[in-house]
Amino acid sequence: MAELALKVTGLSKSYGDKVVLDNLSFTASMNDFSVICGKPGNGKSVLVRTIMGLEPVDAGQIIVRGQDVAKASAGDRNIGYVPQSFALYPHYSVQENIEYPLVLSKASDATKKESVERVAELLRIKDLLGKKPEQLSGGQKQRVAIARGLAKATDVYVLDDPLVGLDFKLRERLIDDLRKTQEELKVSFVYMTSDPLEALSLAKTVMILAHGKVVQQDSLDVVYDSPSSIASMNSLGFPEANILPAELSGTTVKTILGSIKVNTDASSTRVVAGIRPEGFAVGKDANSFNCKVSLMENLGSEFAVYFTIGDTDLVTVVSRTDTQALSKLQAGSVDISVKPEAVVLFDANSGKRIGQGVSHV
Amino acid sequence: MAETIFKPKRKSGPIKFATLGAWGISILFFLPVAWIISTAFKPKASIVVSPPVFIFKPTLNNITEALSFDNTLSYFTHSIIYSFGSVIIAILVAYLAAYSFSRYKPAGTDFLMFLLLSTRFVPAAAFVVPYFQLFNLLKLKDSYIGLIAFYAMFSIPFSVWILKGFLDGISQRFDETGLVYGASRWHIMFKVILPQVKPGLVASFVFNILFVWNEFLFNFQLGGAKTFGIPVGLFTGSTKGGAIDWAYVASIGTLYVLPLVVVIYAFQKYLLVGLTFGTVRGEV
Q1: How many structural domains does chain A have?
Q2: What pTM was computed for the model?
Q3: To probe the interface with A, which of B174, B181, B273 has the most A CB atoms within 10 Å?
Q4: From residue B21, how far is each of A279, B10, B14, B272 by CA, in Å?
Q5: Topology (CATH) of B64-274
Q6: Cβ A54–B196 below 8 Å, yes or no?
Q7: A213 with A255, same domain?
Q8: What is the pLDDT at residue A71?
Q9: Given CB atoms, is B270 within the 8 Å cutoff of chain A?
Q10: Which residues in B lie closer than 8 A to residue A84 (C-beta atoms)?
Q11: Better-scored residue on pLDDT, A63 or A164
């Protein structure tokens, strides 16, 4: 197994009666890009703040390089940090901002020079070094903030949703930069985001944060293909997965999309079915339903198609090159069937995954 | 029809009138100051004459004479020492207090802030006598320590208010980023945050120096020969020999406003921001 860079176990934090982090645990390996993905309000910022030492924990361990730092002061943890807001010091030049963590650790001039050059090269901001933060655009500021976070050589870096609020194109570019940076440095990046697209394009390992816990941690493909809970399925993926009420009897599950044979040994009858947008097929066949298309959203290479069966709203995606399907959709009324293997079954009470579709009945 | 480019019509009439009005009013306010300054340079014979003289041959006689009096220079030294001393101390203390209020938010911060300012609600005349007795008791009368402490105490509350406004406008992310990179609290307070509240420091400095520099009553009551400042000097010197010595009043008055004019002019760009109490702030 890969060497651990960061290990968090049993982390708990409450404010009064409000439990924000609930016995949360996860691990981040060396030379891995770990993305902690959770919807807003699930404790993401508090988790960052406790890891960084800006907020005391109620209980739990934060083990960095084998040492529990949960009680250590923020400055002693030696974790690289890129804050959510840029927080560039306006009275310092870009160079001084990037140098700042090194100045504090009393690095030699040679080290400072070498580090600034390294990160400036990495993030392509060499020509900005002499400027003041107020002279920079949003994307440049973000690059400088990332550079400052990386300037001090360490092996664990926490990046707190650093791309939030940037425009689409810039995000694409920075996502690319970040991935390359991590690969080059071969260190551990722990990246927080609420954007499923960012998680999908950055992560090697994904942790799903929901209700103050990490509910699933695994490689990106595993989490995407076999979400362990409704929260996992909901947090990762865009457009968001469809969640439908369902009825389970034996190994047959019945939804408004018909009956499907499932692979399950659960006895619970209160279940829900999750279907990712790509789990549908457009076209008439024995299992299709006639649906009304309510909205087609152009995502570039594909369309998000919102449709209704009865009074249930669902979403699917159709490739731009699939002209046959698109022309049918444009008619407003279309036959759509669900791919049985795309149906994931969850227990309605616990939200845990209990089975997966096999075939139509 | 030929292409016409739309040009907004400049309403020159009313705007000119408003500018003229603004200038007129400003000059009206400046007249007494101008009168004092011009009087300082008038030959003695043309100071108190009717009708007033506007054109004269300027002379430095009044000023050199006023400066030649025994106490004049010492009034200036005293004023400078206790004014600048007390205000600088006040701002330092106020900054520490404002930082604590802004960042640590002790329980009841709003009420504490109100309490702090309440010392300024009571009219000064109400505690002249108690202070006089206190200063006598503590042997602080006619001492710099006493005066500086008194004026600092008077300047702190307002400075805390101004500075807290500025500090609240500066994101705590700056502090936290510093902490994570290993900075001490002192380093963050003085190297990271302090430079960002410069306009607030200047605003509190100017407001307080105006107050202390002009303060008469307490300097008169709590000070003495070793610590009397210019206002007291002006007052006592102006009636020397029974009649009012206008040449002296004008000369000292002119020299008296000079330091303030220089200070305010030098800090003008900060002062304009300071007067908005830190409400105009950009993104971090």
Answers
A1: 2
A2: 0.80
A3: B181
A4: 75, 19, 10, 22
A5: MetI-like fold (1.10.3720)
A6: no
A7: no
A8: 92
A9: no
A10: 173
A11: A63
